[in-house]
Amino acid sequence: MSIPILHFISPPVPYFIDSGKHHFMPGERHISRNFISVFDLIVVTKGTLFIGENSVEWTVRQGEALILRPDGYHYGTTPCQEETEITWIHFHTFGAWEESQEMSKCLENQLALIEKHKQNAYLNHCEVCSIFIPKHFKLSERSMDDLKQFYELDHDPRSLRNWKKQTAFQVFMQHIDRESASSSDAAAIRLAEKVELFIRQNYAKKLTNSMLQSELNYHPNHLAKCMLKIYGMTPIDYLQQYRIEQAKKLLLQTNWSIARIAEEVGFNTSPYFSTFFMNKEGISPSNFRRKVTGETK
């Protein structure tokens, strides 16, 4: 059976809220709760926990974790058969997220979720990326060490503790995100990231598939396949989108002319830039600037 994936769009990254530990004696079970409004990451450190979410039941063993949704009904399905200990972390996000039954569905819905994110998270000129966290997973030795260091911060003064826990939680989630990738996904991620980095460093130049092939030593079809799998778009599509995002920043942060901005971000002509911007954003560059900055001219 495939394990569902929680797909988050960032920034903002999922953020830590609260944490704690709980001990169940044999015969006790997890309490029932409905719509707790935060994600609940449960790690079993001893024994076995039997828990359900809506109509799905899970058995979480020692060294495993389960993430419960903020909008679900959670309940103990069966009493613990042995002493069971758990640690829990509540977290949330202001960004868009969804649960999919498998990674292929996450990637298939990635562009739609990004568009939803840009509307709901009020981000109209920011680069975003996906975070993939399995709903049920076994923790690696490194992740268990991350968790141990996370709880050691309970001994720090409160004025420092929340800052440090926020950072430690994000490191923990970053490792889970990378560890969840299959070997084939990991290879595609590494190559797609090389493509992305090359584009970011050279977006103002005239880039072609042939240049990418020469630089990365892979056929353009393979590069496109990896980029589609990880980012939901081809290298050239990513290039154009990145140019638009950089143009938005310049529209908001400078008083440069549209023609100068078009040239700065790699478009051949100002009319082509304006047309492309309009097609992608549904608004002209000049009207985008007026809308956000409040300029009347």
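(ticket continues) Second input and output from the same batch:
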Amino acid sequence: MTERTGLITFKGNGLTLVGDGVKVGDKAPAFTALANDLSPKGPADFAGKKLVIVSVPSLDTPVCDLETRRFNTEAAALGGDVAILTVSMDLPFAQARWCGAAGADKVTTLSDHRDASFGLAYGLLIKELRLLARSVIVVDTTGTITYVQLVKETTDEPDYAAAIEAVKAAS
């Protein structure tokens, strides 16, 4: 498995990403993660919609909490042809608890804890922490990646405006 360094940090310390990264123009790799009800989900379950795949280290951290709440709010303005998936290594039960407490009902949380299918397929698994790197990936209705934002410092928020513009521009 490919290991990549020099792309992200945590509090200034370099980390290793496992898996090949994705880039604009690639077909979105398949993956299987668990929904809050423990059912398997992947991109095929959202066929025909634009996808915003937001990967976060853990919903139980301040930046991930803030980021997921922000995308939940933005979802309402993006329309019904857009699905926002927030993927983390949190257990499905913890994700369900977080969604209930946060009132997050517009994003779909998916747990990659079982086999890191998403993290490995998208090259976002942090080797040292077995968490996911913070990123935003936009996939158009044909399954093609149109935007990739890998947040360099894991404790920073993504560029929301750029991500939302990328969703609006995707076909």
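Agent notes: The first strand starts at residue 3 and ends at 10. The helical segments are 62-78, 92-102, 117-122, 160-169. Closing as not reproducible unless the customer responds.
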